[in-house]
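User: My instructor asked us to take a sequence, write out its structure as tokens, and then describe one feature of it. I'm not sure where to start. Here is the sequence I was given:
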Amino acid sequence: MRDNSEAEYAHLSKVFNALGSPVRLRILQLVRETKRPLHIKAVAEMLRMDYGAVYRHVDVLKKAGLVQIFEVGRSRVLSLVHSELLSQLLTLTLQIVAE
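Assistant: Let's start with the prediction itself. The structure tokens for your sequence are:
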């Protein structure tokens, strides 16, 4: 294992913190399953949550580098940054907890 810098550990911590919320995991799963960008408002409706609450969760995911937010007119659209890697990570994690 290589010697990681403090900055790398800080970024890893942000990623794991972002993944540490069931709501954020559900958001990632929804975007992953649709295989296309989703309006944050649509995500809020699917989760039966307030738009503001969902947006705060999305902001955490964005700061961790897991999602991108695009402005489309007056709407905000959400997409995964590394969809294939994130898919593998979620699959691997589910295998770990299943054992």
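For the description part of your assignment, you could build on this observation: The chain has a mean pLDDT of 90. Try explaining in your own words what that tells you about the chain.
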